[in-house]
Write a structure and sequence with these properties.
With 305 residues, this protein is α/β, with parallel strands linked by helices. Helix content is 40%, strand content 20%. The longest helix is centred in the C-terminal third of the chain and has 27 residues.
């Protein structure tokens, strides 16, 4: 049985990456999504090479290439602009110094919803079939120049210019031209550190040799145990402060542990209250369970050069 799974894993990974040699992080728990029409995929190899849906591009061209890709997919592939997100496929050994300028380009373009691709033992991303990992919302920049709004404007102009000829085709896209709702309040690392509230704030320094909170160093195992302890005790906020030389795998470890811990807590609470698994509950019940364990997790603001 193990040999069959190994063969399938190798097959899936070959299908996934094609000519791009990328080994994504692997964790105990990941989320899985089969509805891929609203994703735009961006990949970064272990040397920092950037790819937009398998086409190599320069970071300086990312805005233009994203505009072209988003517009095409919204017209012909049913991508909904109001819910569009980036599927970010990054090699686990990539040094954060090479990822940071790419990662912080997204909020500058008004793109906040990022799906960090990771695998687990039983859930593996398979291109054009499913994606696995963790959905995360970046903080927005006040001076962002939204590429999605630019696509909307372009589509509207084309509707005006060619309305009679193309009205039937474009009517199908009316829902995609409704501006998205305003983003939720921005909660930055600085605001979390400055706030005077009952919420506990933990700044996790991510180092090449482990993790550090205040003056205390933690191994991966120790940090995982602490995250569960903190979240069970009280509402806790986390600030991820990566060093330039940490790897992508290390960067995502606290996020992965937090997601895993929350899933276990939600499952325990669900069975305790409803005698059912968390995913067997209705939306209202699941929301009630989640609200018992509120949390914030943000990346530290990048240092301005």
């Amino acid at each position: 049985m193990k040999s069959v799974f190994l063969i399938l894993t190798i097959f899936f990974q070959t299908q996934l990456y094609g000519q791009i040699d990328i080994d994504v992080p692997q964790f105990e728990y990941v989320q899985i999504d089969y509805d891929l029409k609203d994703y735009v995929s961006i990949s970064v190899d272990k040397n920092g090479g950037l790819y937009l849906e398998n086409d190599s591009i320069a970071l300086s061209d990312l805005r233009k290439k994203l505009f072209d890709k988003i517009k095409y997919k919204s017209k012909y592939k049913e991508l909904q602009l109001s819910v569009m997100l980036i599927e970010l496929v990054v090699d686990k050994d990539l040094i954060y110094e090479k990822l940071e300028p790419i990662l912080y380009t997204f909020p500058k373009l008004g793109i906040l919803k990022i799906h960090f691709v990771c695998n687990s033992d039983d859930k593996i991303r398979f291109e054009n079939v499913c994606t696995t990992g963790f959905l995360f919302r970046m903080n927005y920049f006040d001076n962002n120049n939204s590429v999605i709004n630019e696509v909307m404007d372009s589509l509207k102009n084309e509707m005006d210019d060619d309305f009679i000829k193309l009205n039937q085709g474009y009517f199908k896209h009316n829902n995609k031209l409704i501006p998205p709702p305003p983003p939720p309040p921005n909660i930055t690392a600085s605001e979390l550190n400055d706030q005077n509230s009952k919420r506990s704030v933990k700044t996790i320094e991510i180092l090449p040799t482990g993790f550090k909170i205040g003056n205390t160093n933690f191994s991966k195992k120790e940090l995982a145990e602490k995250i569960k302890e903190w979240n069970k005790a009280k509402a806790t906020s986390y600030i991820l402060s990566p060093s330039k030389s940490c790897t992508y795998q290390d960067l995502l470890f606290p996020l992965a542990e937090l997601k895993s811990t929350l899933m276990k807590l939600w499952e325990e609470e669900s069975r305790k209250i409803f005698s059912q698994g968390y995913y067997e509950l209705n939306y209202s019940q699941r929301r009630g369970i989640r609200n018992k364990y509120p949390f914030f997790l943000v990346f530290d603001e990048p240092i301005k050069n």
